[in-house]
Amino acid sequence: MSSENVKNITNQAIEQLIEALKAGKSEALTNYLAAVAKFHRYSFQNILLIARQCPQARGACTQQELIGLGKLGGGESARRL
User: Fold this and answer.
1) pLDDT in tens, 7-55
2) Rounded to an integer, what is the distance from CA 79 to the centroid of its chain?
3) pTM given for the model
4) E strand or H helix at 31, and its extent?
């Protein structure tokens, strides 16, 4: 995933959160805060990417952890959630 693609996804997630809040829907904020609580060691941008790609995510792995689990290999450098 290119850095430009990451920026676009992040900006879309931010805009969706802003629009939901303007519309009086607090569910989007509640979901975002739940993601922040689960992934508090991650950057703002990574939290938004995880929450957007897989809202029910309970954790995240490093590349080495994925290789060890047999979930990543064969020259892959990344995997979308």
Assistant:
1) 888 888 888 888 888 888 788 788 888 898 999 888 888 888 888 888 8
2) 12
3) 0.57
4) helix 27-38
The answer to whether the beta carbons of residues 80 and 66 sit under 8 Å apart is: no
**Alpha-carbon torsion, ordered 18, 4, 52, 45, to 10 deg:** -70
Q: How far is Cα 58 from Cα 12, in angstroms, rounded to an integer? A: 22
What secondary structure letter does DSSP report for 72? Answer: S
In the chain, where are the structural domains located? 3-68
- Residue 59, judged by CB atoms within 10 A of its CB (0-12, 13-18, 19+), counts as exposed
Q: What number of other Cβ atoms are within 10 A of residue 7's Cβ?
A: 11
- Please report the pLDDT score of residue 80 as a whole number: 63
Structure confidence at residue 81 as a pLDDT band (50, 70, 90): low
